[in-house]
Amino acid sequence: MSNPKGIESQIPQMRKALQSGKMVEFETHGFSMIPLLHDGGDSVILEKPRFPLNINDVALCRTDDGRYVLHRIISHNNGGYTLRGDNCSTTEFCVGDADVVGVACSFIRRGKNIEVNSRKYRFYVCHRVTFLKIWRLYWNISDFFVKLFRR
Fold first, then answer.
1. Domain region containing 90
2. Is residue 148 within a helix (H) or strand (E), and if so which, with residue range?
3. The domain that contains 33 carries what CATH number?
4. Do the beta carbons of residue 7 and residue 29 sit within 8 Å?
5. Cα 106–Cα 75–Cα 128 angle in degrees, nearest 5
6. How many domains does the chain have?
7. What integer pLDDT is reported at residue 112 of this predicted model?
């Protein structure tokens, strides 16, 4: 979720709430975390990060170019993190722990709460590459038929 709407102005309040042990919820915007999260309507609940972050954690981070993104940690690099959205082929870099606002502890998808330690979510994480290929195939086929019937 690249630059969730209006998130920059909320970062100080979010950091303060997370540091005091509270959880923070916000609605997602963007397409970078499809099929896990969709634009609008889905939400993420963040908790205070415990460092170092783990591979596959989903974190709200400030990237090296100054944007805030909610993406998955795919590797560690020189004291920072490499991030990628589930629906992205490009990566971003988070300079270090100070740039991490919070880590997802659950997602609210279509009104249902999905905990990151649930079996359903862990299955998704293990098979997300396969899910993404199926998702893209579905959209390519859909796009083909839309174009076919517009003629």
1. 7-116
2. helix 119-150
3. 2.10.109.10
4. no
5. 50
6. 1
7. 95
